[in-house]
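Sequence in, structure out.
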Amino acid sequence: MVPIFANDTRFWQRRNLCSYHDLPVTYWRNERDPDRPRRPGRDSAEGDNRDPVWTADSKRVLYGSFRNGHFGIYWKPISGKGAEEQLTATETEPWLTSCSPDGQECTYDLGASDPSSGIHLLPMAGEHKPTTLLAEPTAEAAAISPDGKWVAYESAESGRSDIYVRPFPSRAAKWQVSTEGGIRPKWSANGRELFFRRGSLRSESTLMSVQIQTAPTFASIQPKALFRFRYSQSGHDYAVLPDGEHFLCIKEPDIGPTQVEVVLNWATELIKR
């Protein structure tokens, strides 16, 4: 399961990882205060529900789902007082990645299901008609900045996955902020720092940090390594706490034996017994 903190930090989400047996995936919410845990029940009625994203006001959760043979994007109030609503249908499995701070739009892509589709923008009001934010074939994992003026994303347009930043929503320019590859960008709460992973998606990688300047123009400094970690591969595989100093990661279990014992003269020991 992968925790995702709400913008007001009172709540967190966790996503149960899908099994190879296609077991249902459900969402739960809880208070960070361990003395007041709450479990309001399943946030969705059925199906494979995954990759949750908070709305800017922390009142709703958006997620992708598979229902009755069809994919779609849904949302639901965390208060439990409102009904679940489907915002749009998608041809393949959607991966929700971020919401704009004004609560007007969210970003998603179709990931490995459709690696040529680029990044999409879904309005959260009106007809909920998606538009294409970036049509670059390998662009994915978009993250809108806290001030709503920038979007970070990963792209393998050069032949290697790297992290790029563009103005949002104009996309008028582009800056590469990673220097040795990068995936899964996430902004700090103050928008002055960008985090990303360097390394393989499904194995040990290094969490990187890069300082960002947005005025008078965009600029970034040399990325620095924070720590190495073997991540459990999933849609949202790490979370940044609001202080920008602490992170939540799901550790991948160690593979293989950690100790080997050699028994000498084992046949003699058996005879004695």
